[in-house]
Write a structure and sequence with these properties.
about 525 residues; 8-stranded parallel beta barrel; 18 helices; 17 strands; binds ligand TNX
Length: about 525
């Protein structure tokens, strides 16, 4: 029966059930290279009238002669990304060997206007050219190329992915607004395996984040092996709702650090102190100044535990922890928490933070702390992470930089709607538009863009038990925060963003990334 006939015969049923067409592929599952969706939006993008470029069987990836290990790795990652869905060989060839037809070319260019992470991307019918002053810039350029390709480029099966690999002709010049574009994962309230953390890193890389802050110690669990203090992880291994949760050996941690570094993402480890330290105190109850004895804790209360600031053994313990952490962390920063201290006096707190800052410095690192640390004397190299934004002036008057994570905007553990099962609500409902519509440079009175080191989206895990739940909270707010931290304010536009982010959902489905189908997005 042809379709018209089906409808004709079913004319009465139609009134009840509607006229069913023969099954067809939903339009959003088809390639539409006219609709471009790059997130975060580039600083400048000019499309040309020229025909598209196409990746073909014969395409090669050209790298500069004598490319550094970093550049070669970026080329390999591009090839790896493209080979599975296209089924093409895509050999990597060194520039000057033999002229290739219609290549993808990676180039290091001496362009100060692109900063340390920017890139330029040019597409003509005959080539794709990505140039950048650094390998990090090339890597970001590759993420843009990936997003310019049909979404099926995220498929692992060329048998299913089809043959059309067009990239529209255009010119992009791009670099980030802020140096620190971070996400935080709380692996203490609930533990996340190394593989889960890698999955999160994959999402961060796609959206050009460059920091993953790991919240490694809280009341419920202490998650990093410290060889000189081996009982920390064993005595301190619970999680919300019960345990055990798990911990990273130093070799696990090294694996995470390397996986992130390969994607130009720096790990910033946090051991929260002096409060949020119940798990630590399970091994060292004699160091407790808290309001409760350090008993196993699997609830979600905060502020009751504290390390004693007036005991030298406290600093001996912290010296061991921070020394080992510094040695296994290539990034410049160690995060010492410092939030929500309810069991100490202000004087005790200040004394504590100043001594810990000295320990961090002694081990060659810079200190980051939640904004309460600004009550203490901060070094100008220290960073104050704003979550309530009521102490910014203390930090600013000492020359410290602000890392912007305001609860109502950047906390992606807040619920996306009042009826959601996942997420907390103390900072309000944070729908994707709320997370998008703000300017980090003007959010704090008295601060200017120059005072802001960047933006970070914390994902606290009281209600989050695994990476699937984490992704449900993170998507689509992580791409939103990515754009807040990368794209110049004047070029950000909610209405445009909501349409662009809708076009990423088919990619997430191929990548196996869970997401919240926000009613604010035209999926
Ligand atoms: C506040 S924000 C906390 C965390 C909680 C979070 C839940 C901050 C520095 N401390 O201990 O996990 O709220 O949203």
């Amino acid at each position: 029966m042809n379709r018209r006939l089906t409808c004709g015969v079913a004319i009465i049923a139609l009134l009840v059930a509607g006229c069913r067409k023969a099954p067809s592929i939903a339009p959003h599952l088809l390639t539409d290279s006219a609709r471009i969706s790059v997130i975060p939006a580039p600083v400048s993008m000019t499309r040309s009238r020229a025909p598209s470029y196409s990746i073909k069987d014969s395409t090669t990836i050209i790298v500069p002669a004598a490319a550094s290990a970093d550049v070669t790795r970026v080329a390999n990652m591009l090839a790896f990304q493209l080979r599975a869905p296209t089924g093409f060989a895509l050999p990597i060839v060194v520039d000057t060997v033999a002229p290739s037809k219609a290549p993808i070319r990676l180039r290091l260019a001496d362009r100060t206007d692109l900063g340390s992470e920017g890139y330029a991307l040019g597409v003509t019918p005959d080539s794709v050219s990505i140039s950048a002053p650094t390998a990090a810039g090339l890597f970001h350029g590759i993420q843009t190329l990936r997003q310019l390709l049909p979404f099926r480029i995220e498929s692992e099966f060329f048998e299913l992915a089809g043959k059309n690999w067009q990239v529209p002709s255009l010119v992009i010049t791009d670099k980030p607004r802020f140096a620190w574009r971070g996400a935080m994962l709380d692996v203490s309230r609930h533990f996340f395996s190394v593989d889960e953390v890698k999955q999160y890193i994959d999402i961060l890389a796609l959206y050009k984040f460059n920091v993953l802050h790991l919240h490694l110690g809280d009341d419920q669990g202490f998650r990093i092996e410290i060889k000189s203090r081996p009982t920390l992880v064993s005595a301190g291994d619970l999680q919300v709702g019960g345990g055990p949760g798990g911990f990273y050996t130093q070799s696990d941690y090294g694996e995470i650090v390397r996986y992130a570094a390969d994607r130009f993402i720096t790990i910033v480890p946090e051991i929260d102190m002096p409060a949020h330290s119940n798990a630590m105190l399970r091994s060292y109850p004699q160091l407790s100044c808290g309001r409760r004895a350090p008993a196993p804790y699997t609830g979600i209360d905060v502020g009751f535990s504290a390390l004693c600031p007036d005991n030298d053994s406290t600093y001996a313990l912290l010296d061991d922890i921070l020394r080992e952490l510094a040695a296994m962390t290539p990034g410049e920063y160690l995060h010492i928490g410092g939030d929500e201290v309810k069991a100490l006096t202000k004087e005790q707190y200040i004394r504590f933070i100043e001594r810990v800052q000295d320990i961090v410095t002694k081990h060659g690192k810079k200190m980051v702390g939640w904004e309460e640390v600004a009550q203490a004397r901060l070094l100008p190299t220290s960073v104050s992470q704003q979550w309530q934004t009521d102490s910014a002036h203390n930090a600013l008057s000492q020359g410290a930089k602000l890392l912007m994570s305001p609860g109502p905007k950047a906390y992606i553990d807040m619920r996306q709607n009042p009826y959601a099962e996942l997420g907390l609500r103390w900072a309000g409902i944070n729908e994707v538009r709320t997370s998008y519509d703000w300017d980090p440079a003007t959010y704090v009175p008295g601060a200017t863009e120059a005072n802001i080191i960047g933006v970070e989206a914390p994902l606290w895990s009281e209600s989050v038990r695994n990476i699937t739940a984490a992704e449900y909270l993170a998507m689509p707010r992580l791409p939103s925060i990515a754009e807040v931290s990368w794209t110049p304010q004047a070029q950000r536009n909610w209405d445009d963003f909501r349409k662009r982010v809708a076009l990423h959902a088919p990619r997430w489905r191929l990548l196996g990334i869970n997401y919240y189908p926000s009613p604010q997005i035209p999926w």
